[in-house]
Amino acid sequence: MSPYASPNDHRQYHYLTLANRLKVLLICDPETDKSAASLAVNTGHFDDPADRQGMAHFLEHMLFLGTRTFPKPGEYQQFMNRHGGSNNAWTGTEFTNFFFDIDNAYFEQGLARFAQFFICPTLAPEWVDKERNAVDSEYRLKLMDDVRRSYQVHKETVNPAHPFTKFSVGNLDTLADLPGRSLHGDLVAFYERHYSADRMALVMLSPESIATQLTWCEHFFGPIVDRNLGEPALTEPLYRQEDLGLRIDLVPVKESRRLSLTFPLPPVDAYYDRKPLTFLSHLIGYEGNGSLLSLLKEKGWVNQLAAGGGVSGSNFKDFGINFGLTPAGVDHVDEIIGLLFGYLKLIQRQGLAPWRYVEKQQVLESAFRFQERGKAQDTVAGLVLNLFLYRPEDLLYGDYMMREYDEPLIARLLAKLIPHNLRVTLVAPGLVTDRLARWYQTPYKVSTIPEASKIRWQQCEPDSALALPEPNPFIAGRLEPRTPAIAADQPACLIDRPGFRLWHLHEHQFKVPKGNLYIAIDSEHAVKSPRHIAMARLAVELLSDHLNALTYPAELAGLGYQMYAHQGGFTITLSGFSDKQALLLDMILGNRTLGYPDPARFAAIKQQLVRNWENQAKTRPINQLFNQLTSLLQPNNPPFEQLLRHLRGVEIGEMPAFVAQLFREVHVETLVHGDWQESEALALAALLERHLAPYSQPGSETRRPLLSIQDRGTLIRQHGCEHEDSALLVYYQSRTTRARDLACFTLANHIMSSTFFHELRTRQQLGYVVGAGNLPLNRHPGLIFYIQSPVAGPQVLLDAVEQFIDLFPLAMLEFSEQQWQESKAGLQAQLSERDANLRSRGQRLWVSIGNKDLGFDQRERVCEEVGRLNRADLVRFVTQLRSRTSDRLILCSYGQGHEHDERITGQIIDDTGAFRLTAQPFDG
C-alpha cells in the first residue's frame, strides 16, 4: 500500500511486510543524488541484562566490525566513504537504528554489506576487548557532560524495577568477563535473543523503481531470521507513588541554572492524530506579550522557558516544563512554580477553544503541504521509527496530523498538570547535596515537597499580567507559489553601489511559497578591537532578547529568523513562508537601535553571556582546541577568555551610543531567494534602506584577515584544560584559495578520513573522538587531524598521527586503479550533489557570496580539478605534509594523569598576542 503523501511530494512510496515480518517502506525518488537505507530494531538499553548494562550499545558497535560475508573490519566504512557515502547508528532506550547513504550506482552493493549486520555478523572475539575500550572511552568522554550527569540522577530517583534505571552506555566494569561467562558469549546470546525480523523496520530510498527495490529488499533482507519475539512489553511503572512529590537539587559542572517541572502522564502515542500535548505545549510555552515567560523575564528570574519535552517510552510519558533561571531566579523557585500553576488555571478557563487548535492545525497542514525534500539519509533515518508508531497510511503524515479538536482528551491531560502529580528538579551551583550519582559522581539531594507547598500552588490564581495568545497575524495567506518570469539557476545582482549590494533569485525548481532572506551588515566599528567585538556580541544578544516577545508569533507561524555576530559585523537571516517575511523584517529593523535597554534585562543578558563564555572552559578538550585554533588565526575572532575581560566592564550607558555607531557606516549585502519576484526584492531593499538611511552612511566591506603559518615549520600551542582526557589537533593550511588546492585538500581528506578513524580509533584504541577533516578558514582550505584520548598524552597521539601521515603515501601506492578512480568519483558525486531543498540551496548561494564565488561555480571548478588529479599528485601532496618538516600548527592539552612530555619539538606559542603581531595575514 502507499501511505498518504504531501501534495508537494512527487516520490513514490510503497509499504509492505516481508514474509519474515520485517516492516518495509520503499521510496522511489528519481531526482535523488544519493540512495539511503535505515534499519531500526525494537531493542535498546532497556533490554540490557541487569549484570551486562550497556550491552545493546556495545552490540551496536560490534556490528560494524565485519560479517561472515565481508569479514574485514573497517571495510564497510571504507566502501561507503569511497563511494561518496556515510554511515552511523545510535542506541536508545527501546530502539537501535542503523543507517547509511551512498552514490546511487553503488546502492545495491551497499545493501549487500548492510543487510549482513542482521544476518551473519562475525562478532569476532579478537575485537571484543578493543571495542569494549572504545565504549569505555565514549563513556569517559561524557563524564563532565551536564545532560548525561542529570540523566543519571533521573535514573536513580524512579522506580528501581523499571529498565529506565539501567546504565545505558556501558564501560569496562559492566562489560567485563564474569566468572564462568565471557563477554563474547553474552554478546552472541544477546544478539540472538533480541535481533529478530519481527522486531525490525526498514526504509529504503533510491531512484530505482519500487519493483527493483522490492527485489533487492527480499533478496538482501528476506534471510533475516524471524525469532517470533513479539513486541517487547513494559509492565513496571516508571514512577511509584513515593517517586512523586520529590524535589531534587543537583549541582552542575558548568555555570548553569535550570528549574525542571515534570508531570508523569500515561502513554500518549495512540493520540498522534490529535496531538493534545502539542496543543498544550503551544499555550504553556508561548513567549509573546502577556506570556508566562514575559512576566518571569520582567521579574528578572527567568531567561528561557520550554514546554512539552521529557522522557517517553512505550508505557510512560513525562510532560516537562523547563525554565532557564537567572541567579536571582534560584531564590524564587516557589514563586515561579506558583505563577505557572496560576497560568495553567488561565488556560483551563479560557484556553481550550477550537480556534486555537485550528490555528496550530493550519500551520502544521501548511508545513506538510509544502514539505520539502530532505537529504536521503535524513529522510530514511527520520521515517523508520514511524513504522513502529503509526498506522501504515499515516507514516508520512503522522508527524503533522491534527485531525480534530478533542477537548475532553486535552482537558483530561491538562488535569494531570497539578502539584500532586509533580517532580521538581533544581540545577544550580552551590546547592547543598548529600549523595553522588553512580557512574558520573553527580552531587544531588532528594527531599519531599511539603504538602503545604502543594496546596498553596494549587490555590494560586492567574497573575493579572498574564494573557493568552491573540490570533496570530503572521499566518501566511498566500500559499500558492508563483512561476518566475525567467527560470534562472543563479542570483542576479540587482543593486551594486557603495555600501549596498542586492542579489535576487526567484526560485523555479522547488515550487514552494517560501523564501530566504540573508542580510549581512558589515561595520568596521563592530570589530575595531576585542572590546568592540565583545560589545557587538552583547548588542546582538540584547536585541534578540528584546525582539523575542514581538517575533515569537512569527516563529509559530512557520517563519524563522536568526541574528548572529561574525568577523565583519552581524547577519540577519529569515526563512519560511515569504508572504509575511517583509512584515517580520520591518519589525526587526524597527527595533534594532535598542534605545536604552531595560537595566534588569541588560544585567540578565550580560550575565548569561558571561556564563556562556566562562562555560567554554568546561567543554570537552577537543572543542576547546578547535576554539583555540580559530581564535589564534582569525584576529576578528578573539578567544573567549579575552572577550570576557572586556565584557565584564561594559556598562549599560555605553550601549546606545555604541549601537548607533555600529550603524554609522555600514556595508549591506543581501540575498533575496525563493518565491520572491524582482519587484518584491527591490521593495525589500527599499525597506532596508529606509530603516538605515537616517542613521547610516555607505561603508566598505570589513576585512576578515586570516593569519598565515607558512614558512614557519611546526608551531605548538599548549592549552590548559582541566579534564581527564588529553587532546591533540594538527592543522595544515593551504597557501592559496585556488580550485586546485581546494581539490587537493578535499580529496586528501576524502581518502584519508575513514582509514585514519579505523587505524587510530578502532585498531589502536587511542580514543573515542578521532577524526580527519577539511576545515576551511576564511576561504582557505585546511586539513586537520584530531584525537581526544583517555589513555595517552599528546606526544603519543602526535606520534600516531605522524606515523599515519608518513605511511599513507605507501598505502596510496597499494590502491588499485579501480579504487583510485572510485574514490575520486565518490568525491565528485558529493561535490555535484544537487540541493535537497530551498533552504539548502539558499545556504549554498549565500556561502558563495561570502566566499566571493560570484560565478557560483566553485564546486564545479573544484570537481573538475579533482578529475584532473592523478595518484602521483596526491602522493606528492601528502608527502608535503610529512611530519616534522612541514608547516603545521599543533594544539594540545594534557589530561590529568598524563605526564607532560617535552619531546614535541617546534616553536612554542606562549604569548598568543605576540604571535598575532608577528604573523602575516592573508588578504581577506
Automatic annotation (TrEMBL):
UniProt name for this protein: Protease 3
PROSITE patterns assigned: INSULINASE
Coenzyme PQQ synthesis protein F-like C-terminal lobe domain: residues covered: 747-846
EC annotation from Swiss-Prot or TrEMBL: 3.4.24.55
The protein's required cofactors: Zn(2+)
Domain Peptidase M16 N-terminal: 23-160
UniProt xrefs under PANTHER family: INSULIN-DEGRADING ENZYME-RELATED, NARDILYSIN
Family: Belongs to the peptidase M16 family.
Record flagged with keyword Ligase: no
Purpose of the protein: Endopeptidase that degrades small peptides of less than 7 kDa, such as glucagon and insulin.
Domain Peptidase M16 C-terminal per the UniProt entry, residue ranges: 186-360
Keyword field: Hydrolase, Metal-binding, Metalloprotease, Protease, Zinc
Domain Peptidase M16 middle/third: 368-645
Pfam families, per the entry: Peptidase_M16, Peptidase_M16_C, Peptidase_M16_M, PqqF-like_C_4
Keyword Metal-binding part of the UniProt annotation: yes
